[in-house]
Amino acid sequence: MSRHSQDPGAPDAPYLSFWRERHLCTLTTPRPDGSPHVVPVGVTYDPATRTARVIANKSSTKVANVLAAGPEGARVAVCQVAGRRWATLEGRAFVRTEPEPVAEAVRRYAERYERTPAPNPDRVVIEIELTRAMGHG
Fold this sequence. Notes:
By secondary structure, the protein is of the alpha+beta class. The chain is built from 3 helices and 8 strands, in the order E-H-E-E-E-E-H-E-E-H-E. Strands 1, 2, 3, 4, 5, 6, 7 and 8 form an 8-stranded antiparallel beta sheet that branches. It is globular, with a radius of gyration of 14 Å.
């Protein structure tokens, strides 16, 4: 993993390996006033589809921020840090409420974080269409 940007659809092996480790991440979304809203989240990364996923409650501020951005999606970033290693993924986020994408996000979360989240009828998924990957470690 280098300090330089990578293609989020073709990460090098160390970068992908780091995203498969169990780490708490952050999600940064833009508030309606343009200021950043940063919260801890679990993130899964699928380079084959250039997608990152965050499960969330539909009434959360992060979901409201993504929805407020409108149909073009919100420009967001997810990041994880472990010592001197770090990795960031950037892209456009959209809220998905359909059962299939939500179930897929829960499955991927359970795989990465080695625990299945409790059932939540208000769960949605923030899907991020990735445009940039960068990191160091």
